[in-house]
Write a structure and sequence with these properties.
Layout lengths: L2 H21 L6 H14 L9 H6 L6 H6 L2 H4 L3 H38 L17 H4 L4
Length: about 140
């Protein structure tokens, strides 16, 4: 399984877990709750790199719907012409931010791997040693 397909699988699992928490045992109204859950997933900083998926794609800070309704300071100070200029400037930095996030994520995975590997006892098999092989592990047929 490739790296991207693994990320998709983990993301899907996270979304399903949050949906189950939101819906409870009824599993009703999932169509109404899905956009909220997806938005929350996109704007939540990931522990592995400290960035939100939204910011890595669009290179801008996200605005939650309540900020538009209540009109926070950030919304009141919004200037579309200045914003357009800033967006163009930020595009130059976006690739660098993505690269930094990638480096942070690689470092996080390396630390995680080290943590798990320190609990593993290395063992080498000698020629002729019998081992139990599970069909489910190798997907072999009977």
């Amino acid at each position: 399984m490739g790296s991207n397909s693994r990320k998709v699988e983990v993301t899907n699992r996270e979304i399903v877990k949050v949906m189950e928490r939101r819906l409870g045992k009824t599993h009703q109204e999932w169509v109404d709750k899905l956009p909220q859950v997806l938005w929350a997933h996109r704007i939540t900083p990931k522990y592995s790199n400290g960035e939100t998926p939204f910011s890595l794609v669009y290179d801008s800070k996200d605005i939650i719907p309540i900020e538009i309704i209540i009109e926070t300071r950030r919304i009141q100070d919004f200037d579309s012409k200045q914003n357009e200029k800033r967006c163009r400037e930020d595009l130059d930095i976006l690739e660098e931010r993505r690269e930094i996030a990638s480096i942070k994520e690689a470092h996080y995975k390396q630390k995680l791997e080290g943590y798990y590997n320190k609990h593993v006892r290395p063992f080498t098999f000698k020629l002729g040693t019998y081992v139990l092989k599970l069909n489910s592990a190798s997907k072999a047929e009977f």
